[in-house]
TrEMBL record, chain A:
Transmembrane segments: 35-57, 96-115, 122-142, 154-177, 189-217, 267-288, 300-317, 329-347
Family: Belongs to the binding-protein-dependent transport system permease family. HisMQ subfamily.
Cell membrane listed as a keyword: yes
Protein name: Amino acid ABC transporter permease
UniProtKB/TrEMBL annotation, chains C, D:
Chief location category: membrane
Protein name (Swiss-Prot/TrEMBL): Amino acid ABC transporter ATP-binding protein
Highest taxon in the source lineage: Bacteria
Membrane-crossing segments per the record: none
Source organism of the structure: Motilimonas cestriensis
A molecular function (GO) term: ATP binding
TrEMBL record, chain E:
Protein name (database record): Amino acid ABC transporter permease
Upper lineage: Bacteria, Pseudomonadati, Pseudomonadota, Gammaproteobacteria, Alteromonadales
PANTHER family, alphabetized: AMINO-ACID ABC TRANSPORTER PERMEASE PROTEIN YHDX-RELATED (PTHR30614:SF37), MEMBRANE COMPONENT OF AMINO ACID ABC TRANSPORTER (PTHR30614)
NCBIfam families assigned: HEQRo_perm_3TM (TIGR01726)
Location in or out of the cell: Cell inner membrane; Cell membrane
Membrane-protein topology: Multi-pass membrane protein
Family per similarity comment: Belongs to the binding-protein-dependent transport system permease family. HisMQ subfamily.
Organism encoding this protein: Motilimonas cestriensis
InterPro entries named among the record's database cross-references: AA_ABC_transptr_permease_3TM (IPR010065), ArtM/GltK/GlnP/TcyL/YhdX-like (IPR043429), MetI-like (IPR000515), MetI-like_sf (IPR035906)
Top-level taxon of origin: Bacteria
Amino acid sequence: MAIYDIKEAKPAPINNRGLVFWLRKNLFSDIKNSLLSLFCIYFLFITVPPALDWLIFSATWSGSQEDIVKDGARWIFIIEKFDQFIYGFYPENLHWRPLFVAALTVAFVASVKLLNNIKLKIVIILLYPFVSIVFIHGGLFGLETVETNKWGGLMLTVIVAAVGIIASFPIGILLALGRQSNMPIVKTLCVGFIEFVRGVPLITILFMASVVLPLFFHDGIDFDKLLRALIGITLFQAAYIAEVVRGGLQAIPKGQYEASESLGLSYWQGMILIILPQALKISIPNLVGSFISLFKDTTLVLIIGLFDILAMVTLTNSDSNWLGYEVEGYVFVTFIYWIFCFSMSQYSKSVERRFNTELK
Amino acid sequence: GTLENVVKKGELNCGVSTGIPGFSATNSKGVWEGIDVDFCKAIASAVLGNADKVKYIPLTAKERFTALQSGEIDVLVRSSTWTSSRDTSLGLNFAGVNYYDGQGFLINKKLGISSAKELDGATFCIQAGTTTELNLTDYFKSQKMEYKAVTYDTSGQTIDGFKKGRCDAVTSDASQLYGLRLKMDDPNSVMVLPEIISKEPLGPVVRQGDDDWFNVVRWSLFAVLEAEELGITMANVDAQMKSDNPSVKRLLGTSGDAGASLGLDAKWAYNMIKQVGNYGEMFDRNVGKDSPLNIDRGLNKLWNQGGLMYPMPIR
Amino acid sequence: MIRMENVNKWYGDFHVLKDVNLNVKKGEKVVICGPSGSGKSTTIRCLNHLEKFQQGKIFIGETELIEDVKIVRHIRSKVGMVFQHFNLFPHLSVLENLVIAPTWVHKKPRKEAIETAMYYLDRVKISDQANKYPNQLSGGQQQRVAVARCLCFNPEIMLFDEPTSALDPEMVSEVLDVMVELADEGITMICVTHEMGFAKKVADRVIFMDGGQIIEENEPHTFFEQPESDRLKLFLDQILSH
Amino acid sequence: MIRMENVNKWYGDFHVLKDVNLNVKKGEKVVICGPSGSGKSTTIRCLNHLEKFQQGKIFIGETELIEDVKIVRHIRSKVGMVFQHFNLFPHLSVLENLVIAPTWVHKKPRKEAIETAMYYLDRVKISDQANKYPNQLSGGQQQRVAVARCLCFNPEIMLFDEPTSALDPEMVSEVLDVMVELADEGITMICVTHEMGFAKKVADRVIFMDGGQIIEENEPHTFFEQPESDRLKLFLDQILSH
Amino acid sequence: MSNPPNTPTSSVSFFNNPKNRAIIFQVLALGFVVFLAYYFANNMFANIEARGIETGFSFLDQVAGFGISQTLVAYDDGSSTYSRVFLVGVLNTLLVSGIAIFFTTILGLLIGIGRLSNNFLVAKLSMVYVETFRNIPILLQILFWYNVVLAALPSPRQSLSYFGEYFLNNRGFLMPRPIMEDNSGYILAALILACIGVFFLARWAIKRHDDTGEEFPIFTVGGAIILLAPVLVYFVAGQPISSEIPELKGFNFKGGWVIIPELLALAFALSIYTATYIAEAVRAGIESVPKGQKEAANSLGLKEHVILRKVILPQALRVIIPPVINQYLNLVKNSSLATAIGYPEIVTLFSGTTLNQVGQAIEIILMTMAVYLLFSIVISLLLNWINAKMEIKGR
Ligand SMILES: Nc1ncnc2c1ncn2[C@@H]1O[C@H](COP(=O)(O)OP(=O)(O)OP(=O)(O)O)[C@@H](O)[C@H]1O
Ligand SMILES: Nc1ncnc2c1ncn2[C@@H]1O[C@H](COP(=O)(O)OP(=O)(O)OP(=O)(O)O)[C@@H](O)[C@H]1O
Ligand SMILES: [Mg+2]
Ligand SMILES: [Mg+2]
């Protein structure tokens, strides 16, 4: 009946291309949209330039307090107190030790990622916390002891978060397994613990650890305040980890359990060799998420009188030579936290994407 | 007991505040200073012979008593008011008074008032969990005035709230008000009102039921007072060792067994005075005339100079 | 009934529909086929304004399809569409799926709407499933519900976008049967499908699209037996050897 | 070799296995078939204690299967099982999949285990895939790995639960070949399958289950050509017409 | 066909029976927990005894004797007891949580929808909002907003005034307090009657739609009735509500209702922070409805608002509501951080001031925890109920 010639593709009509079209389509497609766009532009106009001006262009970056002439941020405060923000009261001549541990951590992460030899990996994983603690705390191998009440600043923040996640991990896994088990008493205990901890705010747990915990022990047993805070945070985090791991366990097909059983592997062999490696792998994004929460929650140790980076800002602000610099301090801390949390959340997103493409 | 514990550890766990200028606060190098801190040092030198063997545990007002009860600290020197309920139901013992204080008001000069009686309807910034809170209520009830209270966790936040205009006045122990005043951008824009509305005897606290330790703390306090009374100072203590004054000899341990009966070294008082100084020196250095706070000694003068400081005789 | 005049459409810079001209008379049945990505779906989605186009005109009946809420809604109420993945509403029972449009768009009383719905469910032979939820049905049954959902507002035109390609082979013939039956009732129908059997049996005309344009159109017999353009020949080779 | 005596099993109130009696001699090959839900899987899963049963006795070799950790593990090391969905461990390479049980359960040195593993991979003709991961293999290859994984600890009995039903048709014959080969080596074998060709070729006996009980058993020729019970006739009709 | 039955090796070792193992293990676990509890309790009592700390809940009947800056129930600083303080704290927690939940829901909804907007700027700004505020600790945000709020507001004498009746200064936001006079009961009655009326009107509207297919603008009409009826009665009854307008007396305002800055800052910070999570939940929920659903609804000719109400929302809400409710719970828990800025909620008042005056840490902290546990139990029951209601059948 009909056959037609083949046509060449034509460029889209001019009102359908280019910058103008893009603007029309994305910003001014109808009246409502145009109003929204105008509002947003106005909002950006009144916020961004002043903010940038305060943060950068009018800021004072060097010199002493007398040199401040401009109306912007006075970063000299941060520069002056920088060491305190990072190390707290850690003796100045020993600052190389936390720095060394930071470098060690990088090396540790790299080696765990790159090494293939499982045994070596396990040795490194077991050795790392020990070496780090020895270096930071001292008291062994001729290193001078630095009491925990001298720890502070970002260093303390990172230590609290790191110890929290590392120590809570095995406990969390055990709790998750307990909650999944078919032994009613064990299950009840685990569910009770998890739900209790998840139901109360972290600061009540910290209060408990800092105020009540010592009453639970014999006179002679004397815990360090930081240690007690760490115990509280670890138990708290363990409950959240347990829920994340449980999610991972539930995603493992029943067939995997059956296969490992039918090969004659015992419960623990099956768990450690077959189920947990898979469950933890799928849980990574959520684990990172719960780590981010923990990292943010470390600020709460301020309330029980530990000097994390936020507390250092409040403290340095009561130095009578440097009064009235809270804003700079808060902005600085905000920035630090944001960098940490944002990069972690981007990492977990990339992991998630990778899993999504790996899924077949 | 605590004494043996401290000797065994070789270190004194001393509870201090998280920052009250003149009493206990860190200086710009992060080192603890203040009259309370000095008293911690004094105890350490009496017990351990070394004023540096102190571990300072900063505590918020609401943590302090539990920290002591639970044994986290050996002694609490944190401008704590001696009251009957604290002495009885909290399971604590006050070992003495190292500062006689009273509650006062800090106001902005712009308010244009000169007496606390004009404060009807004002808003106050106070720190949670202190006797201040209770005194304020009592005072306003008795004066038939109204007030509002904004209660903060730490003294830093309290003064911040005042600075930002959240309240018309700060009320706290007068000694602290002088310190807080210095935290203002312009200390001359604010003033402390003359009224003192309460008695605030501040002193070191120990756990109940440990009499040996209680004695050590109490007599350390008396010893530094006695030293001032006898005119023994950091500078002349070595010379005074040769003094013939029997009181001096008993105090410095060249005669008598005061140290031994406390379970301490004979040179316990010598160590305190040599390393920290007598009470007057502590006072002047931290809160008195040699400090930025420049507080008048007032009630804290020795008894024979018109004050209330009356050390019991060491013999 | 349907007239497309030089319809052109671009996605960004990509020219998807090139001067598409199409005339479908009342009661006519048209099958569109062509390789994947040739613009078949886009063409029929333009007809009920699920996609906008940038140039050209489309008339449904007497009405020109322009960007106007009332007109678009009017046209949609004349045009029923059955999707490849059915797109039933999973939170509504089968009956509710059928009743929602008549009651909300055509302001029919609910009772009447239910009667109509049951009638059409009966026609597609699943009236016993009326109170189940879509996810409880097999693919073939879901497809029937989708057809019934369209029929419920008595459209003048039905569009099918590969209605059988998501089905198991056994289901395909079931659904095609329903469509053949519909076709016999004289409804105007445009159907994107690769089911050649169906095309031969009911189509008045088969259209071959490639690269966003109509390459060839013809009545089924000639279309399959004597394809003219090389591309169509190639295409038919492929699907028949399959 | 295997003896089930009046085995009864309930899921809650539902009676899944009713007085199942089964005797399999060493080296015998038994095929179980029957309609879906008839209890075939349950039967063979009881044999290596993946399911518990409430009444009756099961003997594997000389050993009675009782709830005792040691005995269960002992029996599992004599009985290999190949699942419908293979259930390979996706986080381990093919070689690791094969090595894990010998090294952890049978405490073999790793080197020896690897040698055995390579030997069996060779036998199922995929030794070149040893370092790949299961998800990188085709269904047929995965099934072979699953078989090799069982063979690695040299079981006396192999259980197969519909080993081919998840495979594309081309793969089926591949896998059946491996099974035939195994059968020829004299291993005791119980296989749930609907592959009648396989049954005819290798089975010593075919068992028909329905409603949780064994309805009929016979050697293959008689089983297929002269079924006795009506149910079996019906069943055979269905699968052959298909 | 038969192997002679061998005697089975049935000497079941007691410890190899998995059932026995489970029992032994559980007994051990339970024993361990009980031992731990016993050990702690024992030490605790010994310590308490040794240190002469009082125990028990008798402190609840003691007079508290301190002032509280915001009390929703009658509280007298000279005569109210600690149990009253507890109640004040719980109510203040509920108040700030309620306010914050209200605003965070609205904000989260807007931002979540904003992230899906086809307006480029709106979408990007929403994303920036989420990525910024989600990655900053809530405590920092509370401190920050408190300082900003306080610094930005003028002193009472320079108050910003609106209509001469509403004032904003660094003591808070002041507004007139309604004073109920004699006939004010009628207004309440009118409100109740209006609500009942609207309920029946709604039923009638549904029925009419069922019968005739005609729509009735129930939201507009119903809203108007509920608003207008009390207003009308207010005038008819001779304006029986007067208001106490805050007045500057001395250095402060007297009278009226006041929202203290701590409450403002806390509610603000909590709303802003939690909204980021709610926004993500909303976005995920809307994105979880396949595109085809909207297309199908469109091709049926349904109007936009019907599509939203009948097709999109029912499916999206199912995904949205559970995480949102969890966030509500988190918000309630986060409100405990008010202790940093001195808002008088349960932790500040009870685990703070009261603990310090009374010194009975164990009782007080347990009571505080119990409050939060109660909240979380109520919320999870609610969640289970909603989940059960919204389940789509046949999945
Ligand atoms: N939203 C979109 N943005 C950009 N390109 C698109 C979009 N939707 C479709 N396309 C492109 O337009 C072309 C035509 O798509 P269409 O869906 O109409 O093809 P089709 O003929 O229906 O193919 P199939 O048989 O695969 O359904 C394809 O090349 C497709 O990639
Ligand atoms: N965990 C369980 N709880 C309750 N009933 C179950 C369970 N597992 C299986 N069943 C029921 O037991 C019966 C037998 O199941 P089984 O898997 O043994 O059947 P089958 O013969 O293998 O079927 P198919 O050919 O479908 O695999 C079925 O009716 C099934 O519904
Ligand atoms: Mg298509
Ligand atoms: Mg089966």
